[in-house]
Write a structure and sequence with these properties.
The complex is a heterodimer of chains A (178) and B (430). By secondary structure, chain A is an alpha+beta fold. Chain A contains four helices and six strands; from the N terminus they run H-E-E-E-H-E-H-E-H-E. Chain A has a four-stranded mixed beta sheet with strand order 3-6-4-5. A two-stranded antiparallel sheet of chain A has the order 1-2. In chain A, helix 2 packs across helix 3. In chain B, helix 1 packs antiparallel against helix 2 and helix 2 packs across helix 4. The chains are: A alpha+beta (178), B mainly beta (430).
Chain lengths: 178, 430
């Protein structure tokens, strides 16, 4: 099982990389056109989760609009509301999860490095809740979603500046089972 | 006093301490203690003989408390004490220690604490005189005990030199995932013992009332679990692994209960877990974030952090009446509070103009005094004698521990030899 899915991952990666090379620079704010739920009709899914990712020029991860694909959703300071492009990508995952009832994800909530550690665990939790609430509304089962909040304990960027803070205010969506 | 002179004094102090620390034998320090601000009214005392392993430890203990200025001859000398000489040096008291080797790697240590005042002829007033026999490897522990005795005799307050600190050490090497460790060390940073090593975060270590156990949050297996671990044996067991948040554990003063934060209700709330029956009692309700519970010494109330008023502030929950009262009205961010031993003040993390500091609030007047102010101060933990606060801060681009006295006048820093240190917890008296 392992060997087959890693081959699939490689081929999916190769395909996406080829696609991205063709379409030019990817800008997270504009969104990527590709297999998208907006077009209505069929949504195709890969057979293995995409675990590699691309980042835009600012260093933020770009969420593939395919599923299953690990995601990162970013949040503005002291907020737990989601950006429109993140909701698009999340919606694609929701579709996958609903049609694959054995699929499971883990949401990992994070904050920037300011403030008390345990209070930040609670803030990260709030961000998890925002993501999971959307998924539940789309019909995903609660048992498919595990939630953990790391608060400020697992930064991806270091430093006391707006960029590092923005990169750390995030929820990571990680597939545990497809 | 000019700023430059004070800086010079500080550098001198730091260098002096550092040079002493490097001489300390047969002990391993992963944290280096540096006194960065002492008080001018520090009591001058002398310790004899100079520069022995035992007297060096006692000197560091007393000097790092910020309350003593220790004079010590630079070399070992066994000539009898001449109190007149020390009176002329303007010391208040003299400590005279004597160490003799015994067979089978044992040592006999005796000391006298002599006040230079109240004397008849050259006798001086002997405030304390004790004798001990220990194994050679127990010498450091004995030195700390003698420091405690001297401290208490001269200040009237119980010393904390035999207590321990717990903290989380994070090591980040380029290209490798970070390593987290839960460490227990002596109060001066020596003899670190790793209790837990993990590839995922460890948080919120907290001591049981007698100092035999630590509770903490571990994120091993990508989920939050609260463990209780026996410090001596290392044996541990999970006490809370509900889905979602399991956080901020705090032992009740009788050791039977653990206050915790759970999101069972959907929101982070304070619960009390009975460690024997595993029964859960929900204390706070509602849609707010409630976290960081902390017990009063009499076990009747808990402090906690809540944003129910719009921003994080400190509230007090009374168990008997279930009433909740807000305690902080100064600044728009107050968190991680704990009571001083006499419950007259609380010590907390406090933000003013975007800068995080450690502050003390007098509960009767509501007045807030900022004690340490680097802008990135967090996780304050009180010493069991209520005189010093251990906390985490940033220095040189990484996390370090620091100590500030309850009146803000004495400051010390404890950077780790390698890695970033955070979330300190001062043990009770052991």
């Amino acid at each position: 099982m392992k060997k087959r899915s890693s081959l699939m991952v490689l081929s999916v990666c190769a395909a996406v990389l080829a696609l991205s090379a063709c379409s030019g620079r990817i800008n997270a704010n504009k969104g990527v056109s590709g297999s998208s739920a907006e077009g209505g009709g069929a949504q195709s899914y890969g057979a293995g989760a995409k675990t590699t990712f691309t980042t835009n020029a600012q260093g933020f991860r770009v969420n593939p609009l395919t599923a299953p694909a690990n995601q990162t959703y970013y949040f503005t300071f002291n907020q737990s509301t989601m950006r429109a492009q993140d909701l698009n990508a999340l919606n694609v995952q929701a579709g996958y999860l609903v049609s694959h009832p054995n699929a499971r994800i883990r949401l990992e909530g994070n904050t920037d490095n300011r403030g008390s550690r345990e209070y930040n665990v609670a803030l990260g939790w709030r961000r998890d809740q925002t993501v999971s609430r959307f998924l539940l509304q789309q019909g995903v089962k609660r048992s498919q979603i595990q939630m953990v909040s790391f608060g400020k304990e697992k930064p991806v960027a270091y430093g006391n500046n707006d960029k590092a803070w923005a990169l750390n205010r995030r929820v990571d969506l990680i597939y545990k089972a497809y | 006093m000019g700023k430059r002179f004070f800086m010079f004094k500080r550098v001198l102090h730091a260098l002096f301490i550092l040079s002493l620390l490097s001489v300390c034998l047969s002990a391993n320090a992963a944290l280096d203690l540096e006194l960065t601000q002492g008080i001018n009214a520090a009591m001058p005392i002398a310790i004899l003989p100079g520069s022995t392993p035992l007297t060096n430890i006692i000197k560091n203990d007393l000097q790092n408390s910020g309350q003593f200025r220790v004079k010590m001859p630079s070399t070992f000398s066994s000539t009898p004490v001449n109190l007149d000489v020390w009176r002329k040096q303007r010391v208040n008291a003299v400590v005279v220690a004597k160490t003799s080797r015994l067979p089978m790697r044992r040592v006999k240590v005796s000391y006298r604490l002599i006040s230079v005042f109240n004397n008849t002829k050259d006798q001086g007033d002997v405030l304390a005189s004790e004798s001990f026999t220990v194994a050679q490897k127990g010498l450091r522990t004995l030195a700390h005990h003698i420091s405690d005795r001297i401290f208490e005799k001269l200040t009237g307050v119980r010393g904390i030199f035999s207590t321990k600190i717990a903290y989380v050490l994070v090591q980040r090497e380029n290209g490798k995932p970070p390593r987290y460790q839960l460490v227990v060390a002596d109060a001066d940073g020596f003899n670190p013992q790793v209790l837990l090593s993990s590839r995922l975060p460890i948080m919120s270590p907290t001591w049981s009332p007698k100092g035999k156990q630590l509770a903490y949050v571990s994120f091993e297996k990508h989920r939050a679990t609260i463990f209780v671990q026996n410090v001596a044996t290392g044996k541990r067991w999970p006490v809370s692994r509900a889905p979602g948040v399991n956080g901020a554990p705090a032992f009740s003063p009788d050791g039977r209960k653990l206050a915790v934060v759970l999101t069972r209700s959907g929101n982070p709330k304070i619960y009390v877990l009975d460690l024997a029956t595993r029964g859960l009692q929900q204390l706070t309700k509602g849609p707010s974030i409630d976290t960081e519970p902390s017990w009063s010494a009499d076990g009747k109330t808990l402090l906690f952090t809540s944003n129910r008023g719009g921003s994080p502030q400190i509230y007090q929950y009374t168990l008997a009446t279930k009433k909740i009262a807000r305690l902080t009205f100064n600044g728009n961010y107050n968190a991680r509070a704990s009571y001083t031993p006499n419950e007259k003040d609380i010590v907390m993390m406090h933000r003013e103009m975007g800068m995080f500091s450690i502050a003390k609030e007098d509960l009767s007047s509501g007045q807030v005094q900022v004690l340490a102010r680097s802008g990135a101060d967090e996780s304050p933990s009180l010493a069991p004698n209520g005189q010093m606060i251990l906390y985490a801060t940033q220095y040189g681009g990484r996390g370090v521990l620091a100590v500030v006295s309850i009146d803000g006048r004495i400051k010390l820093r404890l950077p780790a030899r390698n890695g970033s240190v955070q979330e300190p917890a001062w043990s009770p008296f052991l």
